[in-house]
Amino acid sequence: MKQISHLDNIPSTPGKFKMDKSPYNRLRWHSSLAKLTFWSFIFLALIFIFFFRSPSSSTPQALSDPSRRYLQNYSWGGAAWEKRVRSSARIRSRNGMSVLVTGAAGFVGTHVSAALKRRGDGVLGLDNFNDYYDPSLKRARQALLERAGVFIVEADINDEALLKKLFEVVAFTHVMHLAAQAGVRYAMENPSSYVHSNIAGLVNLLEVCKSANPQPAIVWASSSSVYGLNTKVPFSEKDRTDQPASLYAATKKAGEEIAHTYNHIYGLSLTGLRFFTVYGPWGRPDMAYFFFTRDILKGKSISIFEAANHGTVARDFTYIDDIVRGCLAALDTAEKSTGSGGKKKGPAQLRVYNLGNTSPVPVSDLVSILERLLKVKAKRNILRLPRNGDVQYTHANISSAQRELGYKPTTDLQAGLKKFVRWYLRFYADGKKSGV
Ligand SMILES: O=C(O)[C@H]1O[C@H](OP(=O)(O)OP(=O)(O)OC[C@H]2O[C@@H](n3ccc(=O)[nH]c3=O)[C@H](O)[C@@H]2O)[C@H](O)[C@@H](O)[C@@H]1O
Q1: Does the reported pTM lie above 0.90?
Q2: Which of 38, 39, 46, 352 sits at 20 to 30 Å (Cα–Cα) from 289?
């Protein structure tokens, strides 16, 4: 009876479940309700399992699939957010430009953003702060830029809605596209992250740029790695680039072809810059000069690669300030896109330049310079160059950049590493940051 009195408290529902006052019917109604509750529970449980456990659901997949882990739900939008975006992108000098810098919390992105801001250009940063390397270094760069008045929007270049919104809020004249999955050897560990950022992300960005009105001019980071197995040195832009040695190089090469397509069809002005092993303060901890420094200081042995028959492995190491000057010159000489409003009005500029130092240095010499600067002897472990994407030698011919951008590198490896080491020791001085 207690149960019946309990049922009495259930509000009457119209139609099928209309209550009858007889005790017998009440019992029957009770059993129907119990069944209904039971089956509703099963139904809800199935829905829960379908949406929250199925492989197509975004939450678990975002965790298990490394290529999706950057597409988190970043919060953006709203009046205050738009105000910050506008203020960061506001031009403060005569003839200045308004630049969207992707990968702004990255090594090159931070330096380029700061340099643009210093001369009065409007700069808005974009970065997904992924954990390919220690995100706290990216956060420290972000803090540096914030003090300079550059706001970094936290989002992935694959986020179409966000990119569209940014172009609605600001009529960017230029895009400096530096967001990418970098690193040659990591491509064997996480290939999909290269496709996600360097191909899908690039296409998404170009799609939004081609529809923007006005269309911006785009300067973006390609790589010396596109020369791959090319043996003709120094590497000139006209040399073959159809033998990439790593998936990373292949995605950068694909980027150059994709750039051609968007230039051809939509009139986007596009300049690709082939960077040669860029190093310096605020650099990337996944690069050899950086982790050699860390490991030498820790007394850990370092692996130095050599080619067959003790062949020298060398790089055309290029100092960050030289690269920044090259990037700014590429932006300054970029012509307008010609497809604004959806109709291409004529051929648009399509360029590619080597930005190197023109003086390759063997990796073993790099280590000797570090030993002198750190005043610590390295524990050298000489290894045969693994077959994981590395090439033996890079050397840039920079005559095109010299002629057309006025590019002239001025910092040699000794001077550049001195600045890097000074920064490194100061940045990690408190012993709290690991350097990785
Ligand atoms: O300029 C480029 O195209 C590329 O430069 C670097 O790639 P990489 O030149 O391979 O730079 P590191 O990874 O710093 O290697 C520098 C040199 O040290 C050597 N190395 C690397 C790691 C190691 O443990 N031992 C070692 O001897 C490599 O073989 C290479 O010759 C960047 O990581 C790429 O993102 C960039 O696109």
Answers
A1: no
A2: 352
How many angstroms separate the CA atoms of 206 and 350, rounded? 14
- Atom number, ligand 1, closest to the C-alpha of residue 224: 3
Whether residue 183 has its Cβ less than 6 Å from ligand 1: yes
Residue 63 covered by a domain = no
Q: Which of 390, 392, 398 for mutating ligand 1's site (highest number of atoms within 8 Å of CB)?
A: 390
Q: Assign residue 60 a region: left if phi > 0, alpha if psi is -120 to 50, beta otherwise?
A: alpha
Q: Are 364 and 415 in contact (CB under 8 A)?
A: no
Q: Which pLDDT belongs to residue 74?
A: 82
The verdict on whether 248 is a catalytic residue reads: yes
> Using one digit for the tens of pLDDT, what is the confidence trace for 199-228?
999 999 999 999 999 999 999 999 999 999
The one-letter amino acid code at 141 reads R
CA 217 – CA 337 distance, rounded (Å): 6
Query: Which residue range forms the structural domain that includes residue 183?
Result: 79-427
Question: Residue 14's pLDDT is what?
Answer: 35
252 belongs to a structural domain: yes
**Is residue 6 situated within a structural domain?**
no
Q: 183 with 387: CB under 8 angstroms?
A: no
Give the span between the Cα atoms of 129 and 421, in whole angstroms. 24
Task: Supply 357's token pair.
Answer: 């130092």
Is 270 contained in some domain?
Answer: yes
Selecting among 132, 248, 319, 407, the annotated active-site residue is 248
pLDDT tens-place string over residues 106-140: 999 999 999 999 999 999 999 999 999 999 999 99
Burial class (CB in 10 A: 0-12, 13-18, 19+), 66: middle
Q: Whose CA is nearest to atom 15 of ligand 1?
A: 288
Mean pLDDT of 38-61: 49
User: Interface pTM (ipTM) of the complex?
Assistant: 0.99
3-state helix, strand, coil in the chain (%, to 5): 45, 15, 40
What are the tens digits of pLDDT across the range 360-405?
999 999 999 999 999 999 999 999 999 889 999 999 999 999 999 9
The average confidence (pLDDT) of the chain is 88
Check pLDDT > 90 for residue 29. Answer: no
The token duo for 390 is 């590395």
Give whole-number Cα distances, 5 to 16, 24, 25, 30, 37, in Å: 21, 13, 13, 11, 18
